[in-house]
Amino acid sequence: MKTGRANRWATREFEQEVKTGHLHFIDWLDFEEEFRKDFMPLDSESAAINVLETTAYFQGKRTVDDYLDQFRDLIYDSGYTDLKTVVVKFHRGLDRRISTALTGMTYGRPSDMDPEAWFRLAVWMDTSIGHLKCSKCASGHVGLINQESIWAVGDAINSLLM
To answer: Which of 86-90, 121-125, 140-144 has the lowest mean pLDDT?
Structure first.
């Protein structure tokens, strides 16, 4: 709570303590209630659903791990419980290269009712693509990963799962 809105909130609370001689909060639950009231959106479920209906949550240049952290928070806040919906939203937001490789899998494809399996596979795929980039750069090749490299990673996954 050292910067921004949190800093201003904390400063007000501490100034109140100096004036009155005691903290504004009776106990931890009281603090938690005030904190939620001041920092949580009035309707976090609607806010999360609205984000999931746009491209704002998409992976972009982030790692799958970073994307997944935000995605899990949004799914939790949205209240989405249909597993297939979760998988579809997850695929939709993934980097196109990773999504293409995952949807092109012919063997070992996780069930669309198992988001956790898709999450693990996407993280593994992202790590594998990162290793391909590094090995190509180390060997003097320059450029982005091409579709052939992506399919090679997909083939490697398939062979591991057979």
So the answer is: 140-144
CA atoms in the 13 A half-sphere facing the CB of 103: 12
Domain locations along the chain: 4-39, 44-161
Look over the chain and give the mean of its residue pLDDT values, rounded to a whole number.
81
- Which single residue is written with the structure tokens 């990773």? 98
Long-range contacts of 106-109 (CB under 8 A, 24+ apart): 106/158, 107/158, 107/161, 107/162, 108/157, 108/158, 108/160, 108/161, 108/162
Model-level pTM greater than 0.70?
no
Nearest CA to 89 among 130, 59, 126? 59
Q: Does pLDDT of 57 surpass 60? A: yes
**102-114, pLDDT tens digit by residue?**
888 888 889 999 9
Other Cβ atoms closer than 10 A to 87: 20
Q: Which helix (H) or strand (E) holds 101?
A: helix 96-103
